[in-house]
Amino acid sequence: MARLVLEDVFKWREGQHPRQLTQDEQILAWTIENRLKSGEPVQYITGIADFYGLQLRVTPDVLIPRPETEELVELILEDHPQSKALKVIDIGTGSGCIALALKSQRPEWDITGLEMSRMAGKVAVENGEALGLNVSWTEADILTSDPGGTYDIIVSNPPYIPPSERDKMDTSALEHEPDAALFVPEDDPLIFYRRIAEWGSGALVAGGHCYFEVNEYKAGEVAEMLRTKAEKVVVLKDLQGKPRMVRAEF
Questions:
Q1: What is the mean pLDDT of the chain?
Q2: Into how many domains does the chain fold?
Q3: Long-range contact list for 177-184, CB < 8 A, 24+ apart?
Q4: Integer angstrom CA distances of residue 120 from 62, 79, 207, 244
Q5: If residue 208 lies in a helix (H) or strand (E), which one and from where to where?
Q6: Most-buried pick from 37, 43, 104, 168 (CB within 10 A)?
Q7: Which residue range is the domain that position 123 belongs to?
Q8: In this structure, are residues 234 and 247 in contact, taking their beta carbons and an 8 Å threshold?
Q9: pLDDT of residue 49
Q10: What tens digit of pLDDT does each residue of 34-79 get?
Q11: Predicted confidence (pLDDT) per residue in 123-171, tens digit
Q12: pTM of the shown model
């Protein structure tokens, strides 16, 4: 792993014999090796994460995009294959991974990424500019504000882990990724889903869709809550057979 990271940092080509490092580069290599040994995610060390064919900048201010979230993007694209221009909002956009992946595949869509963290929002803006993808970015907390507007699609991968499930998590994520992007109150684990559904029931056009990535242990509860507001609610499994996505039609 360390060699792969060093090849990326120092731009060594595959099969190329590494040149002699300068003193400053040796110090950097030593620092990288120690960061890896400490369990720091490689994406934070290189500052790059791959997501749905895009190279995104990531910092410890944002969650590292996961393969499961790529499946959420794929679900939305499969459900909406036609080129009709749709209005989409990605709530809790973080690095902008979902919004930017959708925009890269559906350039005619009008997409907004909403994020409460100013630092995370800056990362999303930088990613959009670097990729040349025209996504609108808004700083707001969905729990306390109304984003306004009318949408065809709402998508969100919000915080969904109660503190009691910390022991099920990877140590690297616990020690290095932002708590605000991971955890919800123990006594109200559906807080983001409920609020988004309440707002979305008025913000979605007739027949509009809401897509959530969910905690596999709470998928049924999220679906049950959505059925009080939406017409059609379906729990979908990821490639590992875990219930990780919920789709609702309003």
A1: 92
A2: 2
A3: 177/41, 177/60, 177/63, 177/64, 178/60, 178/61, 178/62, 178/63, 178/117, 178/120, 180/116, 180/117, 181/62, 181/63, 181/92, 181/94, 181/117, 181/120, 182/63, 183/159, 184/159, 184/160
A4: 5, 29, 31, 24
A5: strand 204-213
A6: 43
A7: 60-249
A8: yes
A9: 95
A10: 788 888 998 998 899 999 999 999 999 999 999 999 999 999 999 9
A11: 999 999 999 999 999 999 999 999 999 999 999 999 999 999 999 998 9
A12: 0.90
- The amino acid present at 148, given as its one-letter code, is G
Residues 169 and 115 in one domain: yes
Instruction: Answer yes or no: are the C-beta atoms of 84 and 107 closer than 8 Å.
Output: no
The answer to whether residue 46 sits within a structural domain is: no
Q: What is the dihedral of CA 236, 197, 76, 204, to 10 degrees?
A: 140
pLDDT of residue 177: 96
Q: Is 91 left (phi over 0), alpha (psi -120 to 50) or beta?
A: beta
Answer left, alpha or beta for residue 183, where phi above 0 means left and psi between -120 and 50 means alpha.
beta
Among 53, 72, 75, 49, which Cα is nearest to 62's?
49
Is the same domain home to 25 and 64? no
